[in-house]
Amino acid sequence: MSKILKNSELDVSSANSIVSETLNKCDDGELYLEDSKSEAIVLDDNKIKSSSYNSNLGYGLRAVTGDVVAYSHSSDLTKKSLNESSKNLKSTLSSSNGTYNFEIKKTNKKYYTEQDPIEAKNFKSKIEILNQVNGYVRKKDNSVKQVTATLLGEHKSIEIIRNGGEILTDERPLVRFNLSVMLEKNGRKETAVYGIGGRQNYDAYLKEADWKNVCDEALRIASVNLNSKPAPAGEMQVVLGPGWPAILIHEAVGHGLEGDFNRKKTSAFHNLVGQRVASEGVTIIDDGTLENRRGSLSIDDEGTPTEKTVLIENGILKNFMQDRLNARLMKTKSTGNGRRESYKHVVMPRMRNTIMLNGKHTQEEMIKSVKKGIFAVSFGGGQVDITSGKFVFNCTEAYEILDGKVGSPIKGATLIGDGPSALKEVLMVGNDMMLDPGIGTCGKAGQGVPVGVGQPSLLINKMTVGGTQL
Amino acid sequence: MLEYNNNLGDIVDQCISKAKQSGATDVEVALIKNTSETVSFRNKKLDESDRAENIGLSLTAYINKKRTSVSSSNLNKENLEKLIVRCIDAAKITPDDDFNSLPDKELFFKSSKELDLLDDTHIENSKKIEYLKEAEEVAFKNPEIVNTNGSSFSESKTEVILGNSKGFKNGYKTSNFTAYCEVVSKSNGNMERDYEYTSKRHFENLLKPVELGSNAANFAIRKLKPQKINSGKFTVIFDKRIAKNFLNYFSNAITGSSIYRGTSFLKDKLNKKIFSENINIIDRSDIERGNGSKYFDNEGVQIQNLSLVKNGVLNDYLIDTYYGRKLNLSSNGRSGGTTNLYFENGDRNLKDLMNSNKKIFYITETIGHGTNIVTGDYSVGAAGMMIENGEFAYPVSEVTIAGNLNDMFKRIILANDLQFNYSTNSPSILIEDITVAGK
């Protein structure tokens, strides 16, 4: 049964026969259907600045033979258009002589509700909450000069029609509440951003205590930064706070452990399975099965059930993250990491919720042990060069540490390190693991997908801090 | 009169009248249709092919001073009507904003010279593959090049149609041809990657495959065996490829929105000197075949050519209708941002700049998003080459550079090697006395 095709002029049996005719001599492939709705309501400068609603429908037909992928996608869900796509794929892969792999794991497990969060809460009450947020933030601190509050909601229905007629489906809700504030005091301006979200209805994140907590946190970070002094420059010890700073893990090792870069041998990690890539005590997993989390998926975008994949165990590299194509070529199984931004995009191995597990140290111990270094609590984004392994991330809340004590806040600075060696420099792993608040989006090859991260506090022996003070 | 598809134009008209019937006082509809074919090539053979046909319609409805938008890729009549009703229902309960309105009629696009933005050539996939094969073969002639991250060739045709209830309706077609080659070099245990990229409106203006492949290879090879340098103050040259980032920071800081909201380090700098005396920044929409050229902006407004910075002085902001009304300025056609933005050439050649100091850090890439437009604070990861006595001495990586844009802008010295490769273009830039954090 296809819900998406029910409302289109393309019928299931035509779709099935086009799929099977296209994929007959291929190793793998599918017809991916997507029906998605999204909304964005933005309050800015004391007004509802914009509200938009988007409804998208489209398909992507993919054929895979050996290591070659042919893809054709369109927003025109008709038999005519699908036939055009099929023709295009067949001409690209005219010499293909593969055997279709019908095998795909099944699951009944769902890690989130099927409800459409946009419809579950009426428009008027969303506007009311944004107005309350604006009022609360401006009243709480008179140095507030600008407030931008955003509600983002999404519901995506996907269907994967495989050769042979099997249909795999998933219904994915996603919401996010974001707040950005600008404070001005004594001629100095600072901004801060904070948010929460995940795969649930809005109400799960927008109880008064929840949104107030987001406001308080954004205000706190911005006020800290109003008193920040220029950051130091050079190599030093770094203590990372728990939670969102785990984008260090995402950038430093996560991307380098995605199957495609390793199959192509362009990752700095490609020949390191079974070897030590991190200090003892460092265990990192990529988990798609955490309930209601932003990076979770019941099935990935190829239909494979997600799982908890151990990437690094006690410092030793165990597994890469795989989609079906890279798994087949590397003679292993898909780990349910095959993802795509939308029907307009081809599948690749992507992270879900990437998490470092608890160690035994306290954050206090870490800070006490540092003579000169920084304590980084909150981050903006990060980026990595997979091939050389160099990665960066930007502090948005950080303090200097002098003789085991946390000192003045410092201005936002970029930290740079080397992926394959950074985790070998981990001196202590904390016992205070926290997941991020549900705001991460990861970009790769022009595709953005929602992800999560988590970690306990960490003490890293040596990283380069990109401040201005020599 | 520009040319566009009448059937699509009819859909725009139908949506405008449906929205008016449903209670909108004003309506704007944009329809964008894109078809593209991309081929990726890797290690001597086809890696991926991608054919795309996308259409997207967005509609903004006004009920007096209330405004909401909807958009969809599903042009089914029933679906569009449902969406329009939904949009009007939402508009009714959206609070008023006095500054919401369509542009003034007299600002709409009237005429332009022919910009030659469409090349109708269709490059067959086999020809695209041939192009990429040649590029990779050239790259692999170098023994240091051991792998490829893939090369791709993309051909894309786009049609834009915009209409509104004040009687504006127009559209035009553009094309884009893009080729990209990224290769991996190796020496002992060290791997480095780099790329070359070419993107043009017309196929014949693309870099030749030989240049694409050999540039990518040379860039990747010169990065091998990098050193991490000691922290210190350095004279820095930004390669053209990344020097243009400074224009992006600049343009982000002078949008109507960041100026009005006060979230810009260039607020209150109009008519003040923000660069040195001889620096000029132009934004021109009518360069023939220009990557950033267009006939009208996202609201249908005629785009003025702007001298944003003249002799170092900030002359203008980037204004759309909404922020124009808030700032009491008239839109200069920048809903949708800059067009072809560039620094005019400086008067020194690059060689001359490379000799201006015994030791210069020549930066070929930056990594990370460490630019704060509100404060101007700047801190990013960097890699490149150390120049000693005017010659490339050794590659450098895993360092950062930091400063404040207010101060860095004033000290920018431009070379005279401007080329129009992208929509935003800069000659090489030299800045003295930049903090580099390394060992």
SSE diagram, text form:
The complex is a heterodimer of chains A (470) and B (439).
Chain A: H1 3-6, H2 12-23, E1 28-44, E2 47-65, E3 68-74, H3 79-92, H4 117-120, H5 123-140, E4 144-162, E5 167-185, E6 188-198, H6 208-226, E7 233-240, H7 247-254, H8 259-263, E8 284-287, E9 308-313, E10 316-317, H9 324-329, E11 338-339, E12 348-349, E13 353-356, H10 363-369, E14 372-384, E15 390-402, E16 405-410, E17 414-418, H11 419-422, E18 426-429, E19 434-435, E20 440-444, E21 447-455, E22 458-466
Parallel strand pairs in A: 7-14, 13-21
Antiparallel strand pairs in A: 1-2, 1-4, 2-3, 4-5, 5-6, 7-22, 8-9, 8-13, 9-10, 11-12, 14-15, 15-16, 15-17, 17-22, 18-22, 19-21, 20-21
Helix pairs in contact in A: 2-3
Chain B: H1 6-21, E1 26-42, E2 45-63, E3 66-72, H2 77-92, H3 125-140, E4 145-164, E5 169-187, E6 190-200, H4 209-222, E7 232-238, H5 240-243, H6 245-253, H7 256-261, E8 281-284, E9 306-310, E10 313-314, H8 321-327, E11 340-343, H9 350-354, E12 359-367, E13 377-388, E14 391-404, H10 405-410, E15 413-414, E16 424-425, E17 429-437
Parallel strand pairs in B: 7-12, 11-16
Antiparallel strand pairs in B: 1-2, 1-4, 2-3, 4-5, 5-6, 7-17, 8-9, 8-11, 9-10, 12-13, 13-14, 14-17, 15-17
